[in-house]
């Protein structure tokens, strides 16, 4: 996967950019302002900048988060700055490269899925993109989990969500996924049909109607689920991130 | 009318695509996808008019394999969105009948005038029939264009003083300049 194509994808997806821009400056406004000014220059001198602020980046999770968000909003990939930066933070080359590619795949599919992707779908896309060499084929689920978890140093931007039975989803748009929401994702994954309903959750999880409805409606509001009102029995909630035709498609709309 | 093979996007087999979404961001993606799909479908099938009352006869608005249909009121609001970019126009007050312009009227006008210049037909008179159905226009994108749409496109050229329509009970023609 060419880095240049990744940068193009980052710049293309206005939705993600807007989300990053909308993040509050409530915390550490001064440092943030300083960083913004420096960003103009640092596109070329990224490593110099990162070395200068490496202590802040290492020690301060909030600073790291805003650093990443700002880079994303101007289409700069902080992970492509070279080995020096990353060895400082203790991440090996292999995982660093994998992490970059995970970010690229997520950013490329977020507009369809609302920010969630199944780990096996992620793996298929990565293998396809990395090339035909044998070393590229042997990416395990475990490799992806480790690489994705490294991305957690950037705060809640990337989260690996276990959905039971050894399956995982990667959430790449910051949002609030509570235990209930995770349970919903588990149910959708196990149902093998990309949708659930209030009735389904009540039966499978023993939840009360209010609790099931609240969890599902929240996921609709997060852009993770779509509603289907044409089923004769009840309202259905579909998850594009788990709908095969969606994940498999490469079309732009 | 025989159906042309269209490559349906993933949304077409996604049941919620046929329900207007409540979440604004999702709805916006949904409407955007519908707009593109409608224009592509009409272009592939050379469909110039959509009657919303008969919309469910089109596979476009009715995917029988998943048993989902797009509600006529939603179809009307999407066509209204398309009209904002010059890609559709309502033909009657209740907005049941719509002309769909996968090329805008300005684009049609431009294509027709280019053909006229290419064929050295300035200062000649053509019947609308010749212009839409003649042997010489086969292979051009506007071949087979609906007469009403053709007239509207020619009116655009008229406003640019590139032609003059000659419409009477017996003849329908146009002179190009």
TrEMBL record, chain A:
Component of the endosomal sorting complex required for transport II (ESCRT-II), which is required for multivesicular body (MVB) formation and sorting of endosomal cargo proteins into MVBs. Its main location: cytoplasm. It is a peripheral membrane protein. GO terms for biological process: protein transport to vacuole involved in ubiquitin-dependent protein catabolic process via the multivesicular body sorting pathway. The keyword 4Fe-4S does not apply. It is found in: Cytoplasm; Endosome membrane. The keyword Nucleotide-binding does not apply. It comes from the Eukaryota. Gene3D superfamilies: 6.10.140.180, Winged helix-like DNA-binding domain superfamily/Winged helix DNA-binding domain. SUPFAM superfamilies: Winged helix' DNA-binding domain. Component of the endosomal sorting complex required for transport II (ESCRT-II). InterPro entries: ESCRT-2_cplx_Snf8, Snf8/Vps36, WH-like_DNA-bd_sf, WH_DNA-bd_sf. This is Vacuolar-sorting protein SNF8. Keywords: Cytoplasm, Endosome, Membrane, Protein transport, Transport. Pfam families: EAP30.
TrEMBL record, chain B:
The keyword NADP does not apply. It comes from the Eukaryota. GO terms for cellular component: ESCRT II complex. GO terms for biological process: macroautophagy; protein transport to vacuole involved in ubiquitin-dependent protein catabolic process via the multivesicular body sorting pathway. Coiled coil: none annotated. Pfam families: ESCRT-II. Transmembrane segments: none annotated. Keywords: Protein transport, Transport. One of its GO terms (molecular function) is structural molecule activity. The keyword Plastid does not apply. Belongs to the VPS25 family. This is Vacuolar protein-sorting-associated protein 25.
